[in-house]
Amino acid sequence: MIVTLEVNGETRTVEVAGWESLLWALRERLGLPGSKPACEQGECGSCSVLLDGELVCSCLVMTSDAEGASVTTVEGLSGPGGEGLSEVQRALIDHGAVQCGFCTPGLVVAIAHLVDHATDPSEADIREALSGNLCRCTGYGSVLRAVQSLTGGDTA
Amino acid sequence: MSTVTGVDRRLAGGVGTSVRRPDGVPKVTGRFEFVGDLRADGMLWAATRRADVARGRLARLDLAPALAIRGVAAVLTQDDVPGHRFQGQHVTDQPVLCDGDIRHVGEPIAVVAADDPETARRAAAAITVEIEPEEPLVDLEVALERGEVFRHVRVRRGEPDRHGEVVVEGVYTTAFQDQAPLGTEAGLAVPDGDGGVDIWGPTQWSHVDHRQIVACLGLADEQVRVHPVGLGGAFGAREDLSLQTHIAMLALTTGRPVKIVYDRTESFVGHVKRHAARMRYRHEADRDGRLVRVEARVLLDAGAYETTSAAVVANATFFTVGPYRCDTVVADGYALRTNHYPAGAMRGFGANQVAIAAEAQMDRLATELGLDPVELRLRNALAPGDPMATTGQVIDYPLPVSDVLRSVAALPLPDPPVTGDPRLLPGGTGLTTTPDQVVRGVGYALGFKNLQFSEGFDDFAEARVELTPAGAVAHTAGIECGQGMVTVIQQVVRSVLGMDNVEVAFDHTGQIGSAGSTSASRQTQMAGNAVLQAAEALRQRVLLSTGGDELRDDGVYRDGVRVATLAEVCANGPVAEWVHYQHPATEPPDDNGQGRVHVDFCVAAHRAVVDVDRDLGMVRVVAVDTAQDVGRAINPQQLVGQIEGGIAQGLGYAIMEEVVVEDGCILNPSFTDYLLPTALDVGSVEAIMVEEPSPWGPFGAKGMAELPTVASAPAIAAAIRAATGRPLTRMPIRPQDIVDL
Question: I need a labelling partner for A80 at 20 to 30 A (CA). Which of A66, B130, B141, B704 fits?
Fold first, then answer.
C-alpha cells in the first residue's frame, strides 16, 4: 500500500507491506536508521518518535496508521536548520550520558518531548517521563543530570 | 612495568580529565552506524531455524518446502559447513549448525538467505524439522552425579583440621541473567569476489572470532576479515560467535552480501547467560570474628557447551571467600554440563555468584557474633602483603579493601522514606503500598575480582601509534562497545605525546594483531599500556631524529622554537611504533589451587539502602553508594558512568532479572517478561574514587567496570534482609520470597 506522511518536515510517500511498522518504514524504506529496534514490543523506547507531537514507540505504529501524520525522528531533532546539535543532544554528551549509544536516539526524542512539555519537573517527574526508555549502560544517573541541566533542577 | 617520564599530565584532553567521547555526536544525532544499520548493494537477508526443545535427536530435516519459496537463495545445514564443523572460544565443541543432536533450546538447525527478511523468516519456518525429544538434564546435583563436568577447580589450603568456634552455614542459589544489551545480534557478510569474505558482527575479540570462522569456512587467514562495528552494548554477550559463520557461509554460497538481524526473542538464544549457581558454604570464625576456615561447594550451570565456563568457574572458586584473610580454605567449584542454554561471560564473570553467597555468610557471621557487619569485614580485610585466602598468592600490588569500606560507610545516609509521592514508595504508581508498611534496610557488601586473564594465559595486546602530518593515530583491535576505551586510549596517547590531535582507529583483523579480549576489565590496562609504550617510543624517536625536546600539534620544538613541522617529520610517510604488550606473568594453579594465578585485583565496597513493603514484598532501592578502587581515574566522568551502569545491572540481578527456565526452555525471552531496571527502579548513587596507583597500569590506572555489578547485588540483598529479617538465599529476590508465600 502507498502511505503519505510528513517526516522531519518533508512530505514522503512510501510503499509498504501491510505488516510494516512505522519503525521498519523509517529504517528500511525512508533511509532514516536513527530510530533503533531493540525489543519491537514497545518496552524499550529505542524507537521513540514524535507522531503529531506525541511521544510514541514507532515499532507499535503500523505505517498505514501514520497516513497523513507528522513524524519527527532523531534525525529531525538536531540544531536549528538541521545543523549542529540541539541543547538536548549537547547535554547528553556533556553529562557523559552516551555510552553504547543504542538507546540514545530514543532518549533524545523522549527528552526533547519532556523538555517541551514539563514545567519545572522534579527528579521523580523526570524519572517517570524516561521510564519508557531502557538504557543498559548508564544506570540513568548521567541521563538524569543531563535533563536537570536543561530543566533547571539540581544537577549535582 | 610502565614508566613514563617528561609527560605533561595536565594537558587538556589528557589523563585525568573528563573528555567527551568522539563518537558522542554521531550517537546523539542518529548517524552512528550500528551493525544492524549496515547495508550493501544486492544484499540478501538471512534467518535461522532453531530447535524448540532442550534435548533430542533430529529425526527428519526437509529443506524442500523452504527452497520452493520464491526469493529464497540458499538454505544451509551442518552438511554445508566447508571446514571444521564445530566452533568455540576455548574448546570447539559447539556445532556451527545442528549435528543431529539437540543439546539446548534454540540450537541452530538451518540458515536461510532470501531477498527480504520476511521471505527469509517464512522460509526458515517452512523447513520440515522433526525432533525426537529426550529428557533434558537440567538439575545440577544430577549433572554432578553423572560426572557432566566441564571443569572442577579444587582449592585446599591451610590446616585440614583447623576449625573455628563460631560456625555459620548456608545454601544460596542464583538464576541465569541475560546481558540484555540493547542492540540485538546483527551482522553483514560481504564476499570479496576472490573466495574470501568480510564480516561485520558482534564481537569482543575479533581475532578469536577470526580464528574460529576461518577454521569453519576452511579458508586461509588472510581470506577473512572481521571488522569492528557499533554493537549496542556487550557486557560479555559478544564474546562467543553467534551468527558470523552462518552469514559468511551464506555469502560465500550465494556470492552476495548477506545481512541478518535477530529480534529480541532470538537474541535470548543468541548469546550466553550468566551461570545459574547453587552454592553451599560453611564459614568458621574465632570469637573475635576472624575467619578461621571457609568451606564452599559451588555448582555452576554451564549449559550445553563449554564457551568460557572453565575460566568462569576458576573465578567462582578463587573469589569464593571474597577480599578477606583466611588461612584454611576448602573449596570446590564445578562447571556442569546441562541441557540449558550455554552460560558464559557476563560482567563480573563468576565473581558475582560467589559474592552473593560469601557476603551473605559474612552478614550471618556478624549477626552470630553480635558485630556490626562493617566491623566484621574490616577485621578480616585483605591487604597488600597478605596471602589470598584461596590461591595463597601474596597480594603484591595496591588493594585498598579497608579504605573503600571505610569510605562508603562514612557517607551520610539518605533522608528517611517520603510518604507523599507514590513514585517514591515500593511498588510505585501501582499505588499498592501503604506507607506504614514500609520498612527501611541498609546493607553492605564488598566485591573482589581479578583483572586481565589469569592462570598463565598468554595475555597480550598489540597496538600501533602513528604520527601523520595531521596528528597522531592510535591503532588497536580492541572493541569499543560503549564502555569508553576510545577516550581512554586517546587520553593516554595525548598525555604521552603532549599533543591534542590524537585519533583512535579501531582496526579489522587484517590490519593489526590481537588486542586480546575486550573483557575481564582488560583494555584500560592492556590496550592502555600498549598505546602508552608505542606512543612513548614514537615520541623518543621523533625527538631524537629532529633534535627536539617537545612534541606539539604543529611540530617538534626545541627550547620553545619549532625545529620541524609534522609534515617534515613525516616526509617519508607516517612514523609509527608498534608494541606487543604483555602483563606481568601468572601461572596455572597447582592441584590444590595454589600459585600466582592472577596478575592483579580490584575491589569495591557498596552500601545499599532499600525500602520494602513487608506486606506485598515490593522493594524500592533508594540508594546504592560506593567507594571504588580505580588505581587512577583517567576519565572521571566515564568512571561514574561505569559505576552507575554497573550498579543498575547488579540491581537487576538482585531483584528483577531472571531468565526463567522450565524443562530447559526459556519462558520469558522478551523485554515484556524479562524485566530490566528503568529510570524509576534505580536509586541515587554516590561514588567515591579511591586512587592508589597501580604500579603497572597506564598512569596508575586499573580496570574497574565489573566491580560495581559484583558488589551492588549482594549489598541490595543484605539491605532487604536487614529490612525484613528474612534469610533470602535465592536470587533474584522476588516479592513471594519476601512475604514467604
Answer: A66
Chain B touched by A117 (CB under 8 Å) = no
Residue B208: Cβ-neighbour burial (10 angstroms; 0-12, 13-18, 19+): buried
The predicted-structure confidence for B290-333, as pLDDT tens digits, reads as follows 999 999 999 999 999 999 999 999 999 999 999 999 999 999 99
B636 and B658 together in one domain: yes
Residue written as grid cell 575491589: B603
Confidence of residue B2 (pLDDT cuts 50, 70, 90): very low
Q: Is the same domain home to B255 and B116?
A: yes
Per-residue pLDDT at A82: 67
Q: Is the pLDDT of residue B7 over 50?
A: no
Q: How far apart are CA B559 and CA B564, in angstroms?
A: 13
Mention the CATH class of domain A80-151: mainly alpha
At residue B422 the predicted structure's pLDDT band, cuts being 50, 70 and 90, is confident
Residues B320, B221 share a domain: no
Burial pattern B697-708, b for ≥16 Cβ within 10 A else e, equals bbbbbbbbbbbb
Residue spans of the domains in chain A: they are: 2-76, 80-151
Whether the Cβ atoms of residue B352 and residue B275 lie closer than 8 Å to each other = no
Helix spans in B421-507 (H): 485-497
From B582, B605, B636, the end of a domain falls on B582
CB of B188 less than 8 A from some CB of A: no
CA distance B181 to chain A (A): 6
Averaged confidence pLDDT in chain B: 96
Q: Predicted confidence band at A79 (pLDDT cuts at 50, 70, 90)?
A: confident
Its domain, for residue B122, covers: 35-135+185-261
The whole-angstrom separation of Cα B481 and Cα B483 is 6
Single residue among B261, B294, B310 that ends a domain in this structure: B261
| Consecutive H or E run containing B665 | strand B665-666
Are B25 and A93 an interchain contact pair (Cβ–Cβ within 8 Å)? yes
Domain count, chain B: 3
Complete DSSP assignment for A73-135 = -GGG-SSGGG-S--HHHHHHHHTT--SS-SSHHHHHHHHHHHHHH-SS--HHHHHHHTTTS--
Q: How far apart are CA B372 and CA B375, in angstroms?
A: 5
> Is residue B103 situated within a structural domain?
yes
Q: How confident is the model at residue A154, as a pLDDT? A: 52
Task: Please enumerate in sequence order all residues whose Cβ is within 8 A of that of B435, keeping only pairs 6 or more positions apart, or say none.
Answer: B417, B419, B425
Neighbour count for residue A15 (Cβ, 10 Å): 11
3-state secondary structure of B288: coil
Instruction: Report which residue type is found at B634.
Output: I
| Residue A147 in contact with partner chain B when CB distance is under 8 A | no
Q: Does B28 touch chain A if contact means CB atoms closer than 8 Å? A: yes
ipTM reported for the complex, 2 dp: 0.97
Spatial separation of the C-alpha atoms in residues A13 and A1, rounded to whole Å: 10
Q: Helix B373-380 crosses helix B401-409 at what angle (to 10 degrees)? A: 160
Cβ distance A134 to B676 under 8 Å? yes
Helix (H) or strand (E) holding A14: strand A10-15
* Beta bridge partner(s), residue B110: B49
| Closest Cα in chain B, distance from residue A111 (Å) | 12
CATH number of A2-76: 3.10.20.30
Residue B78 · residue B85 · CB < 8 Å: yes
- How far, in Å, CA of B685 to CA of B621, rounded? 10
How far, in Å, CA of B517 to CA of B606, rounded?
27
Closest partner residue to A108 (CB to CB) among B28, B234, B424 is B28
Q: Which pTM does this prediction carry?
A: 0.97
CA atoms within 13 A on the CB side of B606: 35
pLDDT at position A45: 98
Instruction: Note whether A45 and A132 are within 8 A (CB).
Output: yes
CB contact under 8 A, A99 and B484: yes
